[in-house]
Amino acid sequence: MRALPEWRLVAYDRAGLGRSDTGSGSSPAASALSDLGSVIESGNGAGGVILVGHSLGGPLVRAFANDHPQRVRALVLVDPRPEHLNARLHGMIDRTRRAHARSLHPRLLLLLARRGLLARMAGSFPRRGPETLEPAERRRRAQLMASHRHLSTNELALADDLDARLGAVDADRTPPLWLITHDPSCGDSLPAEPKTEAERTTLETVWSELQESLVRAAPQGDLVVATGAGHLIPLERPDLVAAIIKDAIASTDCR
């Protein structure tokens, strides 16, 4: 955000992540979309906004744009979780659900991250990036890894709910979009549980195919590879994310 000082940017923690309380409501997607709408309104986004979503935030912002095309000028999707991934990798996703159910409670993991304890666990996040990190940066990385490597049942339910809401790309309701994908050689941090090299290859192939399909179907789409970065592109290549956001702003004249 510091790389874009001339524009107004609003960031928030989705319900159940970071410092936000767990969401309520029978529909995870409806609740998450309502929260996003409130954030946009609080940021005075009446004239149209550019939405940036990472991982599961990708299908979330696309669903919002689909429901409110007049409020969204463009989308920047940062290694978005592919829509309908569950249908293509049913067995692997079910295994992921079971693994998450056996892991520490997500709220406990986030508490550990906030206290800086998770950051001391050397294997908790990829080694890519600076060798020496400030304590605040270590805590921030650990907290994000807690969110991604230990997705709660609610997060998986949100993914299912968003898949049910999102069908084929509607050209009339889809704004220009930029999709930043991870470097295939660094795909070991994707949020799933492949057990073999063959499964890891399948996950990478399906992930890429579905992302490319979304870009091709969009009326105006651009696919960019974040060289040298895994799934956590906002942490590993913040320069690239900022540059693509600037491209989106320039292309839509959004301030």
Report on the structure:
It contains ten helices and four strands, in the order H-E-H-E-H-H-H-H-H-E-H-E-H-H. It is of the alpha/beta class and 255 residues long. It has one domain: Rossmann fold. It has a four-stranded parallel β-sheet, with helices on both faces. Helix 1 crosses helix 2 and helix 5 runs antiparallel to helix 6. The longest helix is centred in the C-terminal third of the chain and has 21 residues. About 6% of the residues have low confidence.
Secondary structure elements and their pairing?
Blueprint (H helix, E strand, L loop, with lengths): L27 H15 L6 E6 L2 H11 L4 E7 L6 H4 L1 H13 L3 H9 L20 H15 L3 H13 L11 E6 L14 H21 L3 E6 L6 H4 L1 H15 L3
Parallel strand pairs: 1-2, 2-3, 3-4
Helix pairs in contact: 1-2, 5-6
